[in-house]
Amino acid sequence: MGNPVQALLSLQEIDRDLFRVNAELKRLPEDQARRQATLDNVKGVLEEKRTALRGNQVRIKELDDMITVQQQRIRKLENESNSNKDVTVVEACRYEIRGLRRQIEETEREQFSMMEDIERGKMEIDKIEERLKLELSNFEQFCQNVETEIADATKRQGDLQGKRAARLGKDVDANTLDLYDRLLAARGGEALARLDGGVCQCCYMQVPPNISVQLARSSKIIQCSSCDRIMYL
Ligand SMILES: [Zn+2]
Fold it and tell me: What is the pTM of this model?
């Protein structure tokens, strides 16, 4: 049985890089998913604007039809008031005609404002489409890069895992290895800390003087009381 701390130091050399590669392999698809979500969001906004535009166009057409019916009614009332001798009937026709004309004016104002909305909407849609086109093209390039980077990182990961397996001898017992692995994950890929002048070189806290003595004398696993890392001299 060799020195477990020495064995862990030898592992740590590989695990530092392995930790970075693993982090990269986690980050790359996350970045991609985030960018995809942003693009989907823009597509959603675009679709909403198109739907609103179509809605306005349909509504304008409906208002056109309504105006046509009202104009037909006006013509009918004009004929009635021209041909009828009854003053009361003529007055009633004229009254209704005035009302209808007011309604038509209001409808036309509404249509005009909707047409302005449509024009604005069209310009916005054009802008978004242009931006989206550019972003989609960038994203395509990004995805290709991600694919290359993932392939590269996966290869490095495999190499490092192979090296790690080769170094993982019998010098470290299962409990110690488990502690080491947990520290690797919790402490950003650095599970060991060098003790220098009674100070942990990872968290820079002073440790009791007897720790140095213990480390020098035995191959016992001693952790920093502040950052928990496994100490070595
Ligand atoms: Zn420490």
Answer: 0.75
Same domain, 92 and 138: yes
Ligand 1 centroid to residue 206 C-alpha, Å: 8
Instruction: Give 163 Cα–ligand 1 centroid separation in angstroms.
Output: 27
Tally of domains in the chain: 2
Ligand 1 centroid distance, CA of 197 (Å): 13
Q: How far is the CA of 22 from the centre of ligand 1 (A)?
A: 24
Is residue 3 assigned to a domain?
A: no
23 and 50 fall within a common domain: yes
Residue-wise pLDDT tens digits, 89-145: 999 999 999 999 999 999 999 999 999 999 999 999 999 999 999 999 999 999 999
Q: Would you say 15 and 184 are in contact if contact means Cβ atoms under 8 Å apart?
A: yes
